[in-house]
Amino acid sequence: MNKKSLVFSLGGFILGALAVWLLLSFGTEQASEGSSDSKSKKANEPLYWVAPMDANYRRDKPGKSPMGMDLVPVYEEGAGAGDSPGTIKIDPNVVNNLSVKTGEVRKDSLVNTVKTVGYVTYDETKITRVHTRTEGWIEKLFVNHAGQRIEAGQPLFTMYSPALVNAQQEYLLAKKRNNNSLLKAAKQRLHSLNFDAKELKKLNQQEKPLQNVTFYAKSNGLVDELDVREGAFLQPGTRLMTIGNLDTVWVEVELFERQLPYVKVGQSASITLDYLPAKSWQGTVDYIYPIVNPSNRTAKVRLEVQNPQHELKANMFAEVSIDTATTEQILQVPQQAVIRTEDNNRVVLALGDGKFKSVGVTLGRTINDNIEVLDGLVEGDEVVLSGQFLIDSESSIESDFKRFGEQHAQDHEHQHGHDMDMSVPSARVSGLINSVDVDSNTVNISRGAIEKWNREPMTMDFDLDSSLSIDLFVVGENIDFTFEIRDEGFFITEVHSSVMEHNHD
Fold first, then answer.
1. At a CB cut-off of 8 Å and minimum separation 6, what does 380 contact?
2. Count of structural domains, the chain
3. Most buried residue, 134, 286, 313, 503, by CB count within 10 Å?
4. Can you give the pLDDT at residue 8?
5. Are strands 46-51 and 221-226 parallel, antiparallel or unpaired?
C-alpha cells in the first residue's frame, strides 16, 4: 500500500508540474502576442492627416479638407529605417481612393508623328513671271482676270513697240542682202526681245515688219496676278502677269524649335483639308529653312505634293502629319507621369507594398504622349501616372526631414562621440495661432516659410512639449516659437515671444 501511495503521489506531482508549465507558457505567449499587437497597432497609427489636393493642409485627426474631401492619413512607417530618404508608405485603401495609377518605364522605338498646320502655295520653281524687254503699248490683252487657266503656246497680249519694228527691219534687210553674219545678229536681237518663233514665221511670210507683235505663254498654269490693262504703256522690266502651276504644289508649315530635331528632308507627310476631309494627299519634306522666326520661335518647313487633279488650291489651309519614326530604341515614360517645377523635373516611383518615392529625372525629346528619359530611371521601373502630386509633396517633406535628421546625427557624433543619442530636427519660425485644443494639448498655427528646409508656409497642428503650458497660447496672436520633429509628430519646445510679425529661418 505504501508503494502504491508513493507512485500515485509522484504521478500527481508530475502532472501538476506539467499543468503549471503549460499555463505559464500559454500566458507568456499571450503576453508576447499582446505586446506585439500593441506595438504593431502603435506603429500603424497615422502621424497626421493631410488634404488630398493640398499637402499644406494638415490635421492631427480625421476630418474634411476645405474642398470637402476626406483627409488622408500619413503613417510613421512610411519612412522606415531601411528605406532611402523620401520613401513613404500609403495605406492601400488611400491609394485606391486617390485613384493612383501606375505605368512601366520602357524602351521603345521613336515612333513620332509631328502634327502641324500650313498653307498650300505654288511651286516657285514652276512660276512664270511675264515681263517686257522693251518699251511699248499694250494693243490687245488676251487674259482678262486673275485665276484664268492658261495653256502653253496660248497668246497673252499684243504689243506695239518701235524698238521691235526696227529690229524686224534690220532682220529683213540682212535677209535681203543674204549676209549671214548680219542675219544671225538680227535673229539674236529679236530673240533677246522675246520675239516668238511664231511671229518670226509670220515675218518671213509677209516680209514686212509686224506692227503689233504677239507674245505667248511658255507653260501651263493659272494667272496668279494680272498687273496691266489694254492701252497701258510699258517700260522695259515691267511685270505684266504671274502664272503659277498647280501640277505640283508646296505646303509650307511652321514647326516649333523642339520639333525640328525629328524632321529630316525626304520624310513622308500626310496632308488633309477641311473641304475634302475624307481624302488625304501624300507629300515629302523638300526643304527645311535655316532661319527661325524671332517673333514666334518657329521654323518653316516646305513639303512637295503632287496635285494632278488640281484639288489643292493656292492659299488653302492644310493639316499636316509628318512621319518621323525611326528604329532607335529609347527609354520613355508617359508625359503625365512627369512633375515639372522651376528647378527640376520629377516622377514618383511605385516601389511596391504601398511604398512610393519621388526622384529627379533628366528629360529629352517629346514623343507624342511620351517623353524620353536620359537619366534617373531604368527600364522596368513603375511610375505613378495619376495622384502623384500629393505623393510627391509628402515624399519631398519626408526626404527633407530624414536627411536633416541624419545630418544632425552625423554632426553630433562627430562633436560628442557615438554614444550620444541622435538629435531631432528643429526650426524656429513665427506664425498665427488659429485654435487651441486644451483636451489634446495641441494648437493649430499658420506658420511662415522655413528657408533652411525650403518649405512653404502652411497651416498645421503642433503638440506641446511637457515643459510648456497651454495657457501661453492665445487665439489670434502671432507667436515666435521653436518646434521639433519627433517620431510622435511636431512638438513646440520653446516660445520666444508674441509678436505682430517676425521672420526667422
1. 104, 105, 106
2. 4
3. 134
4. 46
5. unpaired
DSSP 8-class letter at 396? H
Q: Is 253 helix (H, G, I), strand (E, B) or coil?
A: strand
pLDDT confidence of residue 440 = 86
Of the given ranges (86-90, 132-136, 318-322, 478-482), which has the lowest mean pLDDT?
86-90
Residue 353 counted as domain residue: no
Instruction: Tell me the CB-side half-sphere exposure of residue 414, using CA atoms within 13 A.
Output: 6
Between strands 149-150 and 221-226, the pairing is: antiparallel
219 plus 262 within the same structural domain: no
In the prediction, which pLDDT does 472 show? 87
* 14-38: average pLDDT: 45
| Same structural domain, 205 and 165 | yes
Cα 109 to chain centroid, rounded: 19
Task: Express each pLDDT in 220-232 by its tens digit.
Answer: 999 999 999 999 9
pTM of the model: 0.52
Are β-strands 489-498 and 458-464 bridged in parallel, bridged antiparallel, or unpaired?
A: parallel
Would you say 209 and 195 are in contact if contact means Cβ atoms under 8 Å apart? no
Instruction: Choose the final residue of a domain: 237, 264, 293.
Output: 237
Rounded CA-CA distance 70/50 in Å is 9
Let me know: does 267 contact 322? Beta carbons within 8 Å: yes
Helix/strand/coil (H, E, C) string of 443-490?
A: EEEEECCEHHHCECCEEEEEEECCCCCHHHCCCCCEEEEEEEEECCEE
335-372 residue pLDDT tens: 888 888 778 888 888 888 888 888 889 998 877 788 88
Closest CA relative to residue 332, chosen from 289, 293, 379, 299: 379
> Which tens digit of pLDDT belongs to each residue from 242-297?
999 999 999 999 999 888 888 999 999 999 999 898 899 999 999 999 999 999 99
DSSP codes of every residue in 92-132: HHHHHHTT-EEEE-EEEE---EEEEEEEEEE-GGG-EEEE-
Residues in the chain: 505
**Gyration radius (Cα) of the chain, Å:** 44
Sequence-distant (≥ 6) Cβ neighbours of residue 228 within 8 angstroms: 138, 141, 157, 234, 238, 240, 241
pLDDT category of residue 394 using cuts at 50, 70 and 90: low
Rounded to 5°, angle at Cα 337 from 348 and 459: 55
**92 within domain boundaries:** no
Listed residues 276, 292, 323: the one ending a domain: 323
In terms of Cα–Cα distance, which of 116, 69, 159 is closest to 257? 116
Domain of residue 266 covers 113-123+246-323
CB 468 within 8 A of CB 449: no
Q: Are residues 148 and 233 in the same domain?
A: yes
At 29, is the pLDDT very low, low, confident or very high (cuts 50, 70, 90)?
very low
